[in-house]
Amino acid sequence: MKALELHRDLTRIWKNETGWRGVFSSVSHTDLGKRFIITAAVFFGIGGVLAMLIRAQLATPQSAFAGPEVYGQIFTMHGSIMMFLFAIPMLEGLAIYLLPKILGARDLAYPRLTALGWWCYLFGGTIMILALLGGVAPDAGWFLYPPLSGREFTPGVNSDVWLLGITFVEISAICAAIEIVVTILKFRAANMSLTRMPIMAWYLLATAGMMIFGFPPLILGSILLELERAFGWPFFQPEFGGSPLLWQHLFWLFGHPEVYIIFLPAAGALSTMIPVMARTPLIGYGAIVTAVMALAFLSFGLWVHHMFTTGIPHMALGFFSAASVLVAIPTAVQVFAWIGTIWAGRPKFTLPMYYILGFFVVFVLGGLTGVMLAIVPFDQQAHDTAFVTAHLHYVLVGGFVFPMLAAAYYWMPHATGRTRVMRVGIAAFWLIFIGFNLTFLHMHLTGLLGMPRRVYTYPVEAGWTTLNLISSVGGFMQAFGFGLFAIDIALQHRLGKRTRRDPWEAETLEWAMPTPPTQYNFASLPTVDSREPLTQDRNLGARLAGGKGLLARAVDQRRETLAVDIASGAPEHVAILPGPSLIPLHTALVIGGFFLSMLLSLYWLAPVFVVATAVMVWRWAATTGTVNDAGPVNAGQGLCLPTSFDVRGSVGYWGSVLAVAASGTLFASLIFGYFFLWVVAPNWPPPGEFDAYFLEPVLVTAGALLASGGARAGLRNFRRAKPGAVLAACGLALAIAGLLLGAIRHLPGPAEHSFAAVAWTLTCYAVFSAAVGALAQLFIRGRIASGHVSARRPHECRIAAVWSDYGAGVAIIVAWLLALSGAAL
Amino acid sequence: MVSGLVLWAVAFSTLYALHGLGCSSGWTGSGTFGLSWAKLLLLAVWISLIGTHCILLRWLVRRKDTQMERIGIAIGWIGLGATVVTGAPIVVVSSCV
To answer: If you compute the radius of gyration of chain A from its CA atoms, what whole number of angstroms results?
Structure first.
């Protein structure tokens, strides 16, 4: 096929629909990555304006600019926007835009899931901003500690806005995390083994893995606090056996890994840019991969260092203090590897390099104060003071904003195909760098002089006036810097000169494509035999554009990309991806309907949207697959590969495994909460008599085993798949009946005591999980009947088994846990 | 590849959970060597976990041909070091004060 004809055909296959429908139905990772980045930048602007309001208020003592109620909303929304609506979505956007390009693929593993993630993010963020405009924004601090955020002290909807809005946005984060992990593991260039992956892919793999295990505790905490606020289930009220410390544990189980979730992708961008700017290979690839993995794990052992002043025994403080100090080592390994790379190379002092050097100064200072705060006696002195505010800004702005500004300049020529037009960017850098340090450097001193965080005013006699005024001047200087940066980017986008492909002479695959990129990225897919494919073959981009790689074909309107073996990168199958669809938008709308009905206290309406969501998910799954046995296809270069319809380890299977892992983490967090309250909270055991019961858990176990047996029968022998699916669904229905019967007959009302509240929550979770499993099996029965699942295409049976086995397992655990708890209470 | 750190995560969670359970259950009475039962239990579990790390490391170092295997060994060492350091307060800090 001639190159031009190939491009024309691929453009036709991969293009968006026309007009407004195209805007709503796009599933292109390039479009959605840009949308994430632009939306996050808009939220950053809003968060920045709020920061300026904070600085205006604190510039002078006894300021009449804002009262305590408004100020509470301003600082709460500033923190919440920057963490949840800017930092995480920005890193998601970067990953969504870049990943397939650096891995040599045409799109992400689940294009429609990417679109769902963006719509959820947009709607959740919009709810929060509308609440701010309406004067009912959250006002209990970005970590929303109860009892302040509880119904007694925040009777309005302010806390509900945070709990529901943020949970809505978190759905987007979980979607993105699953997407990123599966894409990295399966959608790579041929022969790109794990150790040949670009370093950025390792960082994003670690980050996404952390998101899958880090976000569920926060989602659980939000659900529990919303249940307490809406229905009076007393999880956090000590007088009913609850504990506000449970919220702190759940929040910081997410909150501390969150810092590294934000830092790692930025560090990945640094590890990508620094070798290019220094014109030498990255020093210590293996050491960096090791350090990244160490950070991904160790960062989960630090959460209690946010709770050093809550009265936890000294030995436990010691555990977390030691882990907090330890985590500095893998961070330092990376910093030294970057310094070594610059030292060994011939660095170019271009604009990204300004921000990289700015990163070194700011982030290292933030890291050092982090080590100070890891030491318990110091933390107990500095806790909740402006010192901590200064520290966290040094870490997050140094560790995320500076690298992202560098990344913006580095990858702008890729996204726009244009170069910078003026030297506005240099002025913007100096304003941001000087302004930042002016704002926060001596804020450490303000904190050490005793100024608490989150206060709306302070007396003249406190002696903090000059320091605060300087901080405010620095803050406004930064704001001008960010304004200039935005102008510079807009100028480049509109007026920049066309640039050649790969203007930085970089080595990674995203530069082996036309810039700006086409919707299909590569006309044909690369085969790699090193970590720096462009160093070995400068002409790779032209060869791929000429159709000299794999899958240089345009067949049957199918969107095709290569899926590989996870470890070796050997070509495994041809993945067929879905095209434009309105289903993600519709699904996000019904999920939004659920959150809005909860927010507006229309609780009777919420179940309607739950059912509607289930219908949408069913529709979503039903629009994939084929009823024909296609057989192997010619992938080029003598390779004959099966399609994703015919293989066992399809991306759908891996996505389900990861989704179940996320759900399992939420379940494990709930079990942790149950035992935490039992062991630590006051007013236990609950009043009344409880006995162990056995009939219902036996019923649940029988149903769950029936479900597992039915699913297994279908997996072993396809002829039994249809009756097996029905048996599995019936078994799970029996388990649901047993769970509900046990709860109704033996548990007290959920509002009476935290034991009952957690027990009912466990029951609801088990019923939900079993119901999802039953629906998955009923879906399989329908798919067999419609011919989408056959003996040659049985992989959907495996996917359904993942969900039904999980539902069955959870049902058994919950049933016996609650039944036997009665004997122990 | 990440088995060393997975074992650290198990070790860290186990020690923290046992500490919480021991203190809330009042295992502060004097056991042997003048140490409380809580501290004795934590010490025993910590030492066994360190031993488990050593066994894992011996298993990991059998194969070091590929870069992935070498990274796995390095992570095994990190896991061992992390369990030693994060568990060290058991030796030097009183259990339930």
So the answer is: 27
Residue A26 is part of which domain span? Answer: 1-188+550-647
As a whole number, mean pLDDT of residues A774-795 equals 92
Residue A297: which of B9, B21, B87 has the nearest Cβ? B9
User: Does residue A309 lie within any of the structural domains?
Assistant: no
* Percent residues over pLDDT 90 in chain A: 86
ipTM (interface predicted TM): 0.95
Q: For residue A574, what are the β-bridge partners?
A: A562, A643
Please indicate, yes or no, whether residues A568 and A705 belong to a single structural domain of this protein.
no
Among candidates A317, A326, A679 on the partner chain, residue whose Cβ is nearest the Cβ of B21: A679
Q: Could you give the CA distance from residue A221 to residue A163 in angstroms, rounded to a whole number?
A: 9
pLDDT by residue (tens digit) across A210-240?
A: 999 999 999 999 999 999 999 999 999 999 9
pLDDT in tens, A454-490: 999 999 999 999 999 999 999 999 999 999 999 999 9
Probe site for chain B from A196, A197, A297, A376 (most B CB atoms < 10 A): A297
Check B89 against A301: CB less than 8 A apart.
no
- Assess whether A154 and A7 both reside in one domain: yes
Residue A811 and residue A705 share a domain: yes
Residues of A in contact with B93 (CB under 8 A): 314-315, 318
Sequence-distant (6+) residues with CB within 8 A of A522 are A104, A106, A512, A513, A544, A545, A549
At residue A1, the pLDDT reads 56
- Which of B24, B66, B94 minimises the CB distance to A680? B24
Residue A759 shares a structural domain with residue A674: yes
Amino acid at A723: P
pLDDT in tens, A563-572: 999 999 999 9
Is the separation of the CB atoms in A76 and A141 below 8 Å?
Answer: yes
Choose, out of A192, A195, A315, the residue to mutate when testing the contact with B (most B CBs < 10 Å).
A315
Provide the domain count of chain B.
1
